[in-house]
Write a structure and sequence with these properties.
It is built from two helices and 17 strands. It has 279 residues and is mainly beta.
Length: 279
């Protein structure tokens, strides 16, 4: 019996419905739906249920909600059976919601790569470039107000003379640095909130200050202008893995590496500089 299916048509897997994992396509932009969606990806917790499960982007745990992104520098619980990182929202970045009732309320994945994913928040004009191994959380803001809140009180808050860098010291002894691509007026509101009244368009970068040594802060200052938007692993060279980053901004890119990575870095790679004392 002759088949009724044309020979040149690609095979389409039958559709199925799952109560455990609903249709993931609603969390991806339309531009990405013409190709197969990734499975078992490093950002998959942004998709099941409401897409609000925490996901690990070294060195932070990150959790998305309807119009905000929560950042946790996780503490580690462990015993002989397992290791567990505890999510506690240390910093929450949110924007003012649009009054348009037709605007999408949840986040949208607009692009992804081997090592990075871009999260858009249409309701608040925020876009986050989340790349594994980058110590900065990078956010693109398009002309709206921004609120940075914490679950600890802000003990002190100060900025530089150019209004492009701010320092927030929390009562849990953590210090967070906030960098802006252009002047922004951030002010402390109440005990645990930092606010920008609106009208800012540009890049915000937020990073946990890793210690008390002044040279650490100067290193973060030096690399605050260059940020990655994606990263891929390249296996074209035999017996080698090369990481390639797409970057924006100016200057050099700062990335974190595991101790094993440092041992495997090619000694003849003149494009990479290891900062031995920066942790």
């Amino acid at each position: 019996m002759a088949s009724s299916t044309p020979k040149n048509d690609p095979y389409l897997f039958p559709k199925t419905k799952s109560s455990v994992l609903p249709d993931p396509s609603s969390f991806f932009s339309k531009d990405l739906l013409s190709n197969p969606l990734p499975t078992n990806s490093f950002f998959q917790n942004f998709i099941p249920k409401n897409g609000d499960q925490a996901e690990y982007f070294h060195p932070y745990l990150i959790k998305s909600s309807a119009s905000s992104l929560s950042i946790s520098y996780p503490s580690l619980l462990h015993n002989s059976a397992f290791l567990y990182e505890v999510f506690e929202a240390k910093v929450i970045i949110s924007g003012s919601n649009r009054s348009d009732s037709h605007t999408r309320k949840s986040h949208l994945i607009s692009s992804f790569s081997d090592l990075g994913v871009t999260l858009d928040f249409p309701s608040s004009n925020l876009r986050f470039f989340l790349v594994r191994g980058n110590p900065f959380i990078t956010c693109s803001v398009s002309g709206n107000s921004i609120t940075i809140s914490t679950n600890h009180a802000v003990r002190s808050f100060s900025g530089n003379s150019l209004s492009t860098k701010y320092t927030a010291k929390l009562t849990n002894n953590q210090t967070w640095l906030i960098y802006a691509s252009s002047p922004i007026m951030l002010t402390k509101h109440g005990d645990s909130s930092i606010h920008c009244g609106g009208g800012f368009s540009g890049i915000l970068r937020i990073v946990l200050f890793p210690g008390s040594k002044p040279e650490f802060e100067s290193i973060l200052d030096r690399f605050s202008c260059c940020y990655p938007v994606s990263g891929d692993g390249d296996f074209t060279k035999p017996f080698a893995l090369e990481y390639k980053w797409e970057t924006r901004g100016s200057g050099d890119l700062l990335m974190l590496a595991h101790p094993l990575h440092l041992k495997l870095l090619a000694r003849d790679n003149t494009s990479t500089t290891v900062l031995d004392n920066f942790r």
